[in-house]
């Protein structure tokens, strides 16, 4: 996918990632540390994480097309593209956490000690993955904004 209604697809799709990835990250952290939130939101979070994971490579491919179609790229554009290539790993990590939280939700009726340990581990992983995903989105977006509007060449 290179264009949507005549506009570069990357410029449109990137906004979905910029909203969805941090939203999924924050919801996973919330679900990790607040069981009532997990009971209410777990399936929504799983769906949003899946959409994010599907949209990430589509967005990066559209960005690669845009980069190649624009002539000689400036160094900041190359930095943006390089950072963007890492987003798939964070999207997959968000999906894995969402799946783990869904499994915990299904097993919630059981009161065995290993499940309690798993709940704590998943909550900590959700925090680490969530924060690192948000930081990554900000870093990618900053390089993209610098490439479009900034003074860095």
TrEMBL record:
Domain (DUF2231) ranges: 6-150
Residues spanning the membrane: 12-34, 41-59, 86-107, 119-140
Keywords: Membrane, Transmembrane, Transmembrane helix
tRNA-binding in keyword set: no
Pfam families in UniProt: DUF2231
Entry coiled-coil feature ranges: none
Record flagged with keyword Nucleotidyltransferase: no
Name by which UniProt lists this protein: DUF2231 domain-containing protein
Organism: Mycolicibacterium hodleri
């Amino acid at each position: 996918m290179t264009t949507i209604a005549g506009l570069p697809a990357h410029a449109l799709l990137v906004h979905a990632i910029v909203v969805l990835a941090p939203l999924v990250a924050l919801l996973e952290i919330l679900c990790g540390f607040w069981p009532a939130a997990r009971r209410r939101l777990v399936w929504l979070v799983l769906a949003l994480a899946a959409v994010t994971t599907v949209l990430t490579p589509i967005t990066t491919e559209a960005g690669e097309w845009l980069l190649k179609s624009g002539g000689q790229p400036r160094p900041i554009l190359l930095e943006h593209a390089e950072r963007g290539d890492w987003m798939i790993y964070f999207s997959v990590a968000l999906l894995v956490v969402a799946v783990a939280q869904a499994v915990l939700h299904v097993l919630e009726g059981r009161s065995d000690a290993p499940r309690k340990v798993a709940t704590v581990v998943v909550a900590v992983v959700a925090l680490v993955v969530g924060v690192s995903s948000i930081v990554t989105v900000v870093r990618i977006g900053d390089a993209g904004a610098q490439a479009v509007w900034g003074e860095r060449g």
